[in-house]
Task: structure prediction
Amino acid sequence: MVNAVLSNAVQYADSKQLDLKLLFHHHNENVEQYRNGIEKATEKVVQFLSERQAPFSGITPEELKPLFDGISLEETPLSLDETLEELQAVYLDHAVAFHLPKYAAHLNCPVVIPSLIAEQILSAINSSLDTWDQSAGGTLIEQKIIEWTAERIGFLSGDGVFTSGGSQSNLMATLLMRDHFMHTKLKHNVTFKGLPNGLSSPKIFCSEHSHFSLKKSASLLGLGEDAVIGVPTDQYFRMDIGVLEELIKREVEQGNHPIGIVATAGTTDYGSIDPIPEMAQIACKYDIWLHVDAAVGGGLLLSDRYRYLIDGIELADSVTVDYHKTYFQTVSCSAFVVKRPETLHLISYHADYLNPKEQRDTGIPNQVDKSLQTTRRFDALKVWTTLRMMGRMQLGHYYDKTLELTKAAAALIEAHPSFELLNPPVLHSLVFRFKIDGFDNEDWGHINLQIRKALLRCGSAVIAGTKNNGDTYLKFTVLNPMATEADFEKILALIEAKGKMILFEQA
Ligand SMILES: Cc1ncc(COP(=O)(O)O)c(C=O)c1O
Result:
C-alpha cells in the first residue's frame, strides 16, 4: 500500500517535472506570483466586505455539505483563480460577517487595518515565538506588549506570554494556582511527581457565571470539575462576596484546600464585573491565588473613561486579556500576565535542542520558558502595529463607543413594550426576551428559541441566545463601534416581527 502511494507520488512528480521553485514565495522569480496571489485574495475580501448585505446567508450544514462531497483533495491541483472560485462557493458566500452592524451575537469584533497588515507580515515571515533564535526582534516585541499590558493593569514588574485565547490563558492560571499551592504550602513537587496521594480536594472559587474553560482546566489538571465551586451572584450577576467567604470556610472545615479565587471582569453572558477589591482582600486573608479573567473586560485597560470599572485588578496574581475580543484584533490574540515573573518558573521546561537550561541565566530570552505551546504564532505583532498606528487613546475611544452603544441598545430594549431586559448594561452583553402582555400562558422560552432559529435561517441579523434559570433568552453582544442605535432598532423590529409571527401561528 505504502509502496503504491510512493510510486504514484514519484510518477506524479515525474509527469509534472515537479518544480520546487513553483510556489515558494522566497524564490526571486516568484515575487510577482506572490504579489498577485495576495492581491487577488485581498480582492476577494474586498468583494466580501463591499457586496455582503446580511451577516449570514442562512445556510444549514445539510445544504452546504454536498458541496464538499464533490471535492477530492487527491485531484490534480487547481489554479489560483479556480481555488478562489471554489472557496467562494464553499466558504465566502456563507461566512458569517462580523463587520456588519446587524451581527451582534458572540464575542467577535470587527478588525482594524493595522491588525490585518501585521497578519500579512507575521504569516509571510513566519517567525516562531518559542525561542530567540527563531524570532529575534519578534520576542522583544512580544515582551514589550506584555510589559505594556502589565503596566496598564498596574503590575510594577509583571511578565507573561501570548496565548491562543482566553481558554488557554485560564488554563495557565489554573495550572499556576495548583502548582503554586503544591510547591509553597505542601512542599510537594507536583510538576515532577503529579498529584499527591490522599490529598484532600483543592478548591477554586469563581462566580457561577464564570467561563466554562475554568472547569475544563480543572478537569485537565487532574483536579476534577468538582474542584471549581460556582459562587452565587447578586441581582446584577456579580459574585456575592458574603457567600464566597462562607463557602471558603465550609471547605476549610471539611478539610479541603482553597487554592485560588477567580474574579471575572466581564462575564460572557451578562458582562458583569465581580467585586475585584473585595475578592482580593479575601484571597489575601486566606493566602491564596487571585486570578482575574478579563478576557472580556480587558478592553477597559484601553479606556480613560471606564478604566475605573476594573479598579483592583492590580491586586491580582494573574490576569487573562483577550485582544481578539475587545482590541479589534484578528483571532488569535490573547495574553496571560502575572504580577510576579518568578511564578512562571513553575511551568518552565527545558530541552537541549531548544532552550537549554544553561541559557536561562545568560539573558537570552526564550518565551517558550513561560508557555504551554512550543511553536507559536507572532500574534503580538498585531497589537504592536495597532498601537503604533492608532495609539492607545484612539483604540480606547473605539472601545468606549461599544460600551456607549451597549447602553443605548439597553435603553431601546427597556423602552420597548415587546421586550424584557434581564441585566443592566455594564460591558457588551445584553440578555433579553420577546414577551408581550396578554399572553399569560405562553412558553416564552420556547418562543424565543424559535425566534433565534428563524433569525439565523433568514440571516438578516445574527444574535445569540443563552439560558437563565432554564429559560431561553436572546443575547446581544455589542462590539462593533461602527454600528448605530438605528441598527439596533432595526434588529429589534426584526425580532419583534418574528416573535409575533410565531405567537400568532401557534395560536
Ligand atoms: C469570560 C471569558 N473567559 C474566557 C473565554 C475564552 O476565550 P477564548 O474563546 O478566546 O478561548 C471567554 C470566551 O468567550 C470568556 O467570555
Notes: The pocket of pyridoxal-5'-phosphate is lined by residues 107, 165-167, 170, 211, 213, 264, 266, 268, 293, 295-296, 322, 334 (CB under 6 Å).
